[in-house]
Amino acid sequence: MLTRRLFCGCLPLVAGFAATAGSALGAPAEPEGGACAVFSRERQRAETPASALERLLQGHERFLSGHTVNCDLRAQVKATAGGQAPFAAILGCMDSRVPVELVFDQRIGDVFVARVAGNFVNTDILGSLEYATRVAGARLVMVLGHSGCGAIKGAIDDVHLGNLTATLANIVPAVSATATADGPRSTANPHFVQAVAETNARLATRELTRRSDVMRDLVKAGELRIVTAMHDVATGRVSLLADA
Fold this sequence. Notes:
This protein is of the alpha/beta class. Helices cover about 50% and strands about 10% of the residues. α11 crosses α12.
């Protein structure tokens, strides 16, 4: 079995293979320095929205297979000290079981990550993603929900607790918009919980272009793609969701 230590020693060979495979699948070939090279403005501009998504999905497959890339993170800290040029931005939940950079095998300077319980959209999230895309140049936004989400369950159960009450109010529209699944509309029904989580992620994706002229214009110009995905905390797998 190829361990993480051995994999690091074999990095030039594996990185060369990844570059060839990436080109075949539509992602740009890796730059000099291989998979550990930090993103520059030039690399970022070479990405398309489609290749940015492919890059994320390739990283996720490495995560699932146990063949993640080991890099010198201290070197990446130094290389990104003067600026950043991430190729994607991900809106996810704060759940500790969904560490976004690990799930997509990305490192320092690769992706922006905005996290809030229930991965919903508000003005702060919109402004953050407008910065990530229009100002900093990210070519992809992914809204990432997940199974077994405590915030989703709290919204279904109409939990009231301090400031959490206002947080969960952002998710209540997804509860109302979810068609009745088999069984009760409660957290006792895991199928309903999952259905609400998927509805909530799709609604967040729609809100990004409904409430942001900046991102809507980037999408229309072909400079940005916005996708919805779900992470299964039992298997670790991320699946893209089709538009409802």
